[in-house]
Amino acid sequence: MLFPEYRPRRLRQSKAFRRMIRETRLSVDDLILPLFAVSGKNIKQEIPSMPGQYRFSVDNLVRTAQAAYEMGIPAVMVFGVPDTKDPLGTQAYAKNGIVQKAVRELKNRIPDLAVITDVCLCQYTDHGHCGIVEKGVIDNDASLDLLARTALSHAQAGADMVAPSDMMDGRVAEIREALDENSLSHIPIMSYAVKYCSAYYGPFREAADSAPQFGDRRTYQMDPANALEAIREASMDAEEGADILMVKPALPYLDIICRVREESDLPVAAYNVSGEFAMIKAAAQMGWIDGQKVMMETLTGIRRAGADMILTYFAMEAAELLNS
């Protein structure tokens, strides 16, 4: 089709036409709200690098989740920030750990809200790594049991879905086996299947107090230069029993979201991470961009790349606009 016989602008000239031919639609149903839980009561601690985001005590976390649910957001992802840390991250799988408490209260107060839990050890270990450290090296296989125990404790507390984010090899299979053996075969796993060793995680590490105390996470998180490896990682997690495959971060890896979507028939999630959120917020505060428009363009772009669902700190702001 060539000009002048074909004129693409014909179908752009009115709002009605643009709506009729829109290829990608962003919905409140696509959004998952991440929340940070801390101990105590009536706590709402602002996270300086993430404007408008907070660490909540369980009572305030439930109030925020209730507001999100009333806006139509179908799910929240709970991250825990414990009071104490140790080499084995024991608070991650403690029966009365902060995530377990938050999950029980969320399901008691808002039973129809889907509660997803982040399964990792980095917030709970004193060294800040996502697995057991032996002589300065992360011991992959020794970490699997603790990750499975963490996921199991979340599910037993009432979590609707567990989401391992550690990037240890074999952890999806270990978690699937632990859930199945404990009559929890109905609990799905959202795997952080393709998680890059990214500089975009800085604000999150402040929020969750999870920065590594030595070295970095390059031995277990993926090299940002790699794409074929992403397909291998996603395929392995699918074979081990993952129900949803996640790509993290989202914006620098839209091509990876697209490739995972093309290679797998499982639902694909994307995490619009803290650094992506913070950059938009900072530029908007400086008056350099229209923050709301850039937010919606960003989320639409992630959907267009192939994500079926988006974890985003923008969830409540975006839901307000979508509902209006």
Automatic annotation (TrEMBL):
Its EC number is 4.2.1.24. GO terms for biological process: protoporphyrinogen IX biosynthetic process. 5-aminolevulinate 1 binds at R205, R217. InterPro entries: ALAD, ALAD_AS, Aldolase_TIM. It comes from the Bacteria. SMART domains: ALAD. One of its GO terms (cellular component) is cytosol. Mg(2+) binds at E233. Transmembrane segments: none annotated. One of its GO terms (molecular function) is zinc ion binding. Homooctamer. Belongs to the ALAD family. This is Delta-aminolevulinic acid dehydratase. It comes from Desulfonema ishimotonii.
